[in-house]
Design brief:
homodimer; alpha/beta; Arc Repressor Mutant, subunit A; Rossmann fold; 2 domains; seven-stranded mixed beta sheet; three-stranded antiparallel beta sheet; 8 helices; 10 strands; DNA-binding
DNA sequence: ACGAGTTTGTGAAATCCTTCACAATCTAGG
DNA sequence: CCTAGATTGTGAAGGATTTCACAAACTCGT
């Protein structure tokens, strides 16, 4: 039962169910559009966007048309307009407060990832278990003890948590975060998490991707 | 019913096209199976596997049946057998030689990722541009100058390359790697790569995943 | 050895996603 | 204003993946 959501309620949004691949592509389009905008282009066609994103013009138009009609026939899309629209669709017209749980090598790298802040994702908390790490500062944030996770996460008003932990610890932390009101998790550990309804999890599974590559190389 | 799958090695085999999601799930199943095997279980049913992997029993059986019939009706699958079969299907019955290009924070974390070696992925080379990093040692490998990338990659007989680079550099490195005979890339940069036919690329796009989470939170 | 109870393997149906094809609408240029 | 050329928006078709449903085949207890 891979059902993640049920229905919209907070926003008066009659937009039908949006496919995950569509959202991913929007994120891509946005990046190209910002590049195009930076280069001074004022309009762009679905064909040009498609080329940048390794897809087809029809796909681009379909993706956008699920949310409204932003283009001008005969002309294309206004870069500036479309950037604004996609940012709004993706919820990027605000900032999001991030916590990173696990300050090992991977957690540290993530917390200091350049371009987070620029794109509106602010790391407001970092947690670890190891007393030697607690108290150190990363990217301007002091590493806190994971034992106060719930209280801290609420105090910090965190929206999203990034988990960079050993698989054994991930599930328990995920449950605690969900309990504390964090509704979005980005999981770098290798075990899929079980979370309450209403919490979205995305996995970044290094080992799995390598195994997919192994398969591709083997059956080339 | 009579599915013979022994010919997958020598020749371009007649096994029908395998969907990407199927391969991903196989990788997942494998992990659970190894856990079950470690716990001493000798058989497992599609239902149990499905629960572990957040999918359905029918899905599990369909996935496996694309490659042969490994189970016993009324009993389930032999854990040990199935582990062996999936490892063979995914090409994990051998080791793969990895290079990491980019030894910044992310590249270093990846190169030292625990569990690579255990799963048969050996980091045999690390490259960077920065003279201050070249010559340092990470995970037992000395960081080399990226300017000899092609020759080194061939000397090291690298199968897979992990790219942990600024987006501006990624495309040129990808092209050089493809030229040098690396047919599988795992890309952590934010721009999708264009590569020659026969080269497989998988993307790990942190920013994109965060934006998908932003969308999910916004349209909850 | 038998019947009750499981569980697989797999066509067929359903669902999800992408591509096609074309009318509608715009710009540009005279 | 009118025509040629370009591009969007979208219903319908097509393809891909997941789910359903059930016969076949096995185990186990008696």
């Amino acid at each position: 039962m891979p059902h993640l959501f049920t229905a919209a309620r907070a926003r008066p949004d009659p937009v039908k169910r949006i496919a995950d691949p569509t959202v991913r592509r929007l994120s891509l389009y946005l990046r190209f559009l910002e590049e195009f905008e930076g280069a001074g282009r004022t309009t762009i066609s679905s064909g040009e966007l498609a080329q940048s994103g390794h897809t087809t013009p029809a796909q681009v138009r379909k993706d956008l048309s699920s949310f409204g009609s932003f283009g001008k026939r005969g002309l294309g899309y206004g870069t500036h307009d479309l950037v604004a629209h996609i940012r709004q669709i993706l919820g990027l017209d605000r900032t999001w407060r991030l916590v990173v749980v696990g300050a090992g090598r991977m957690g540290s790298a993530i917390a200091q990832f350049p371009g987070f802040r620029d794109r509106g994702f602010h790391v407001v908390g970092i947690f670890d278990l190891d007393p030697r790490r607690i108290g150190q500062t990363l990217a301007g944030v002091t590493i806190a003890d994971v034992c106060h996770l719930e209280a801290d996460v609420q105090r910090l008003r965190a929206d999203i948590a990034v988990l960079a932990l050993p698989p054994a610890a991930a599930q328990s932390i995920a449950t605690r975060l969900a309990q504390a009101g964090v509704h979005a998790l980005l999981d770098f550990s290798t075990a899929p998490l079980t979370v309450p309804a209403g919490v979205t999890v995305r996995r970044m599974d290094l080992a799995m991707e390598l195994e997919v590559l192994s398969f591709a190389l083997t059956n080339r």
